[in-house]
């Protein structure tokens, strides 16, 4: 091996020579003498040659030109909220982002403190007692909630998931279930909400481990879950509620609905859209299920000076101790995203978070009224309560796909197509009056298609 | 790192009337709150959530101070075995922060060609580095990569109507995630024994291989830092019974420029971008655990997949043959930007130094300390090695004491009590981005600790003495769990 010459490698020729001598070998290759000849890689990586920083910058700038930022009226589980500048500034402190999982509490209180704050904030929002830190995203958090329920109730391996849960979430739940001998059945919807009659009959068999519902549901509807927890509990099953974190500052909490486990996506706490990630899944539950929880949990204790300090706790649940008997294979993940969520929720406070919901709700009402006036689309479920997102259906002769394409041309992301000709539309505080007018203009100019 | 603990929680800085936000149109927000109040009462929250109320300067000072309680790779040497705590280049952070941040995952594909190209280029780069046909980048972490890889394996066997394969073989030296992932994928776990030199016992392996085995999961180099030199024989034996060979990529770093899992006969593998490809660990994430497969297994990769049309356009595709879906969208996207930037910064030639330098650094430490620390497995190690505590067992000084004494010297501790093969495991991985001077400082500290263990063992046994936090009471934390701000107020 010749001497490397790159800013990331601190070795000089002199260093390498001295180090080889200490190791009692003449070449670095000798340190690989145990690698059989037949598996040594003698070819070349099919990669470009090294780029300098300025070349790299130019390369990514050119790539970014192939993307188009659109005024975002799409949600479907992922919402564009404003990220205050202090958040990226503080996240870029390398004491935070270059640290590992806080295994050494003596030199990791920064991480442990914010995780404890995160657990507290998510419990405040969901009304639950315990929250872990953390899950990959809202979909896998729901899958882990499902596994947690199945593992809490031995011998029951049937789970019901409402048709009103986000289909991307349902697919992940299905995948995890299918490899674990768990049967997932779809609980049908009726007029946009979970069919409670069907639920009663499906619970009747007495073998259901858990029922999964969402609030707001995939169509943006706020379902009235009055009495649901009692029915589920009467069948000795657990109720899992998937909820968008930010909406819980105004909506009835999963705990108040009587859910046993709350889970979902916390991306709406000011995390950038980032073309799908990193996001932040959360999983919280009532205290009785604490020891069935997967993943890291931070707890308070004291040190030998009597100071209040924080440590990773209840680790007997985890893979590095229990191996194949662990509650999950999950390790640490999305650590720094929990700090992002904590800072956002703290800057907003209870009032700011409520007003963000207010801005979205008001914008959505305004947009919905105007869209309906065009006569080219209408609310699919006009009588159902919604917050900042609603499902529309196109009038005869108008196509949702055409609208999406025309709008994209005008710099607008009109929404997410649902079913054959539905459009799921969301508004947050980020879309102003002009944006709404521009959207209406696109719809007004939409032409009837020959079918 | 602070000398004194900054011990506040953000809740303790909260004051009614303080706010840290400004909205574009507050009248609209308040109108909307009025609209929300008209919704049926039972749908609404009864009381406000207890969240902090703080102004911006207070919050900034809180987290700045809190960060000084922490230790990161930028603070000092982090020889944490199997974690590959290498330098996280700053340019990558900057590029990732500005790239695709406002792109919605469900935007039409023609408006996100740049974002998809990052995915496409990275999966291509990992394929050439791993010697595989194709990668999915969707799994969010190494553990989820393992789970996804096992789902691919199950889907492959199922596609051949080979339903009797219910077991996964895992060496006893494996990372804890391997057996846990196998259990999560619905498999029974069977342990394979190690030889005295830490490598897989081929005879024991062969005795456990039959048509009930779906796969063997292996880390190579393994967790004691030894290259599994029998890998050609192992691959042949595993394939002979119709099973597949899975590569746990946690220890890929020393093989950059040296060998490729695909060439060793591995069928499926995962890579930890946050280890080998220099993306930050973030105090525990976000990471990424891309999964690669050899030719013939691509159709089992999870949905959605990024594919290229004949005209060069990229699109997002879903297919029924996939093993399922493991992420809402394409995974921890910004991590891909950082990993691609790292790969392109080093380029085809620069990457070839990574493995050899990491291995040189590890061997240098090992040779500089093996007179004082027990080296159970001699011979050239790869990126990491394991000491079984001090050579002098009479002092009563344990691996835990040594780890804590290192904190007092300004170093992060190595991985301790893993692997489980030894009682006093002390697993050291320096990575290629540490200078000889840093390694020498660490070696001096370790030699000093060994010396003090003999001359003043009681002092070493009570370390750390100088960290802002000392000896937290773990038992109390687990016996009386206090997990939220509300718990603390009770």
- Write the CATH architecture name of the largest domain in chain B: 3-Layer(aba) Sandwich
**Proportion of helical residues of chain A:** 25-40%
Any guess at the CATH architecture of the largest domain in chain A? 3-Layer(aba) Sandwich
At CATH level 3, the topology of the largest domain in chain A is Aspartate Aminotransferase, domain 2
Oligomer status: heterodimer
Helix-strand makeup class of chain A:
alpha/beta
Strand content of chain A: 15-25%
Distance between the termini of chain B: 31 Å
- Uncertain segments of chain B are none
End-to-end Cα distance of chain A: 69 Å
Q: Residue-averaged pLDDT of chain B, rounded?
A: 96
The main pleated sheet of chain A reads as:
7 strands, mixed
Q: What is the N-to-C succession of helices and strands of chain B?
A: HHHHEHEHEHEHEHEHEEEHEHEEHHHH
Task: Tell me roughly what share of residues is in helical segments of chain B.
Answer: 25-40%
Rg over C-alpha atoms of chain A, rounded to the nearest angstrom: 26 Å
Backbone shape of chain A: globular
Q: Which structural class fits the helix and strand makeup of chain B?
A: alpha/beta
Please mark out the parts of chain A with pLDDT under 50 across 5 or more consecutive residues, or reply none: none
Shape of chain B: globular
Q: Trace the largest sheet of chain B across and list its strands.
A: 1-7-6-5-4-2-3
What would you note in describing this structure?
The complex is a heterodimer of chains A (451) and B (490). Chain A contains 13 helices and 17 strands. The relative contact order of chain A is 0.14. Chain B is α/β, with parallel strands linked by helices and 490 residues long. Chain B folds into three domains: 58 residues, no CATH class; 256 residues, Type I PLP-dependent aspartate aminotransferase-like (Major domain) (Aspartate Aminotransferase, domain 2, 3-Layer(aba) Sandwich); 123 residues, Aspartate Aminotransferase, domain 1 (Alpha-Beta Complex), CATH 3.90.1150.10. Chain B is built from 16 helices and twelve strands. In chain B, α4 runs parallel beside α11, α5 packs across α6 and α11 packs across α13. At the A-B interface, α1, α2, α3, α4 and α5 of A face α1, α2, α3, α4 and α5 of B.
